[in-house]
Amino acid sequence: ARVPAxxxxxxxxxxxxxxxxxxxxxxxxxxxxxxxxxxxLVFDFWPGQSDTAYRIxxxxxxxxxxxxxxxxxxxxxxxxxxxxxxxxxxxxxxxxADEIACRLPEILANExxxxxxxxxxxxxxxxxxxxxxxxxxxxIGVAVLGFDVxxxxxxxxxxxxxxxxxxxxxxxxxIPTRIYSTILSRVSEELSDWELVAxxxxxxxxxxxxxxxxxxxxxxxxxxxxxxxxxxxxxxxxSEAASAQxxxxxxxxxxxxxxxxxxxxxxxxxxxxxxxxxAYSGMRDEEALSLxxxxxxxxxxxxxxxxxxxxxxxxxxKGIKRARWVTNQEGHRAIAIAQKIAxxxxxxxxxxxxxxxxxxxxxxxxxxxxxxxxxxxxxxxFLTMVFSSxxx
Length: 392
Description:
The protein is mainly alpha-helical. The protein has 17 helices and 7 strands. The strands form 3 sheets. It has a 3-stranded antiparallel β-sheet with strand order 5-6-7. A hairpin with a 5-residue loop joins β1 and β2 (about 20). α14 crosses α17.
């Protein structure tokens, strides 16, 4: 192997001074960039821990791997970002070598060790880096490296595995646990805030939806009233109809202090409820949107109660297929909140309460998440069809 001396210059600054030498545990490769960015290759793989004689050897192996990749690659040189992208993979490889007490050349030349590393220690996202490094090291050759890498057949099998993984990757990167936990906590708080004013809000939405004058200003009431103004019996305006608590709720949520703001707030709660249902069931967005009004169930098995959400999916079949998701109390809580808002929509559009006057079969045909901001246009025709047409 053509291992350079520790004083070999890795990088120089624009003024000619040395930025890093081969023996340094951090190589500053910022001078290789055309922009004034800071980029470093850090070979301290065990920060805060004491070096052992074996770890010093593994660090030397890692340095030479990167050195060979950079100086003996052949053809166009690596971009700095490409070099930096190899470091997480090298770090994992070094730590694995430390665990099994093997040098890096031993692992890269041994099919069993390398496959074990790939299966147990290598994140799937780094599989491409492994294949790329093996290909470059194979082209550099044993004369420069001082060791040979695994056979072509092994590299081809690893590459095929990577292609299968990438081809099957159809989802976005998962949200980090800390952020996901914060989101769940926040949406739960949103539902709790709504529950404090829900009874009044639902009643007021129903009243204002049924009576076009209720909750409007005196001027608006006069505009709406199309008969003799002398016969107009004024309804309470918004300031009289809504309590101080409800008005404060709207202000806290950044909504307009009016019936329009309340309608918008209820729509936001529907969206939050849908997110909670998805979070605690794993269903997709379109599956949540198509949930029927009567979708919450519970079953008892082995003396334990299991909460279920019933709906439909197109994921596993051509066309619509009935599906069931396991959820928890939060999922059922969100459904109950969405049902109460849907009750208002159905009552206003069809002049009757869904839960009290309609059979379960009819309720299964009605969507849970219905628009509260555009009641007549979107729902009148649908509801007329559902409630008046005979069952097929």
